[in-house]
Amino acid sequence: MTESTPYFLSEAVSDPEFIQAEAFDTVVVKFTDFPMKDMPAAFDSTFGTVFPVLGEQGITAIGPAFALYHRMPTDTATFEVGIPVDQPLANPFTTDTGVVIEPSRLPAGDVARVSYFGPYNALPEGWGTFMYALSTAGKEPDLPFWELYVTEPSPDIDPATLRTDLVVRIKG
Prior knowledge:
Elements: E1 17-21, E2 24-35, H1 39-57, E3 65-69, E4 76-84, E5 93-94, E6 100-106, E7 109-117, H2 123-136, E8 141-149, E9 163-170
C-alpha cells in the first residue's frame, strides 16, 4: 500500500493489518437504536437515496459503502451507513421520503483491518475470528468499528465471494 492509496482501496488481507488510518469525509444516514433484524432495510433505504443526492450536490464517491458502529450491537444498533466522498456535504439534506442524509467522517487513528470473504449473514463469525486474532496479538479493540463492503452485491453473485473489510480502532 502506498501512502496515496486509502486503506479502503487496498488489497485484501487475511491476517490483521495494523495501520494509521487517516480520516475521510463521508455522506451517511444515521440510525439510533435500530433493530438488528431490520438491517437490510436500513441499507436499502440508504443507498436508494444517497447516490442521487451525491449527483445533485456534485459530490463523488471515492470508496466502498460502509457501516460505522458507535456501540456494540445487541438486538439494536447505533450506526451510520454511507459512502466515502471527495468533498464534504455542506449541510444535512432531507429527501422527499424523509430520509436525512448528513456529512460525517470515517475516523483517523490506529486501526486494525482484515478482509472477510463470505455472506453477510456470517459476518458475526468473521468478527469473532478477527477479535480473537487481535487479542492473541495483544491488541485491545476500541469504538467505533466499521465494515467496508468492498464487493458490490448483485442478485447473481456467489455469496462466498463477497469481500467485506472489517476495521476497528485499537486502544493505546
